[in-house]
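In this section we walk through a basic example: taking a raw amino acid sequence and producing a predicted 3D structure, encoded as discrete structure tokens. The instruction is simple. Fold the sequence below.
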Amino acid sequence: MKIKFDTKVIHAAIKPDSDTGSIVTPMHQTATYVMEKVGKDKGYDYTRSANPTREIMEDHLAALDNGKYGIAFASGMAAIDSCLKLLKSGNHVICSDDVYGGTYRLFDQLLVNYDLHFSFVDTSFPDKVENAITPETKIIWVETPTNPLLKITDLNAISKIAKKNNLLFAVDSTFSTPVFLKPLDFGVDLVMHSTTKYITGHSQLIGGILITNRKDLANKLKFVQKTIGAIPSPFDCWLTLLGVKTLDVRMKKHEENAIKVAEFLNSHPKITSLTYPGLSSHPMYHVAKEQMSGFSGMISFELKGGMAAGKKFLNSVKLALLAESLGSVETMVLHPASMTHGDVPKEFRLSHGFSDGLVRISVGIENVDDIINDFKQALDKV
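The resulting token sequence is shown next.
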């Protein structure tokens, strides 16, 4: 029976336990498995290779993205690093110029030591992507929306470029979630989610997943997963399965609140600029509206007075929480330049439109009037 997404998010690969009827997926908190005899097991031999709880989570999250294969990791960064393990010395990667600071740090400060090469370009412009391709290019790595400037990439356009040049196209869709965007539907080869964020939604674990429809990629990444061993624990997989069941209702509430918060902030006299993909003022609003079914809960803005004003605002909030994360039920605020993107060189940030005074908000699911009143009192103190 074909089911709608809000039903799928609860039931896709989550079934009552066949042995006991338990409605909650059992947690197989074990490192190893007893074999029936030499050369014969029951499908499992060691949890680094496979675990029943992890398999259910991988299958479930893959189904939500219209994917066939899910490969889970201990963090979003472990997932990204494992994806780059598909490369060889001398290969080249084209990456969105505004990505999570941890991704930039991995690419620019660590993987370059292994003779991998990276070009950071504004993937909002397909011609810039195409112009950056070299004979050594193997992967186009895109965030949409980006972190923290919320740039939007036209996935159809970049997919055509990737296919024409026989390149792997990978998308970090953490901000969108499969509720609002399913990149595989646009010809993308690999989707990455930091399950730490919206997927679980309660700041209770660290995790990541890669999703694909390509069996060849799935087999290679499963080998990396088994060999490197950067896997999530059965307990974290179990918690993810509990959290993801409310993903659809949470994301719709995040978006509903974010639109109202963005409209309030956008009209405030102390704010010089604001970016939210759901506002028509966003330069790529038409693309976001076409490929996304909703705009998520992330907002970035700048205040008059730059960094000093931003810090005053962040230190004055009472309901919102100053924290290095996003996608939780609680509203969170942060100063990217000194927190999530502290390792990104200032010259690089400034040259790509990412100022010291930028503030990022992850709008939660509290009553929106309380969120707005908190921001209003904090702005009054700026």
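Looking at the output, two observations stand out. The chain has a mean pLDDT of 95. The chain has two domains: 5-244, 247-380. In the next section we compare this with other chains.
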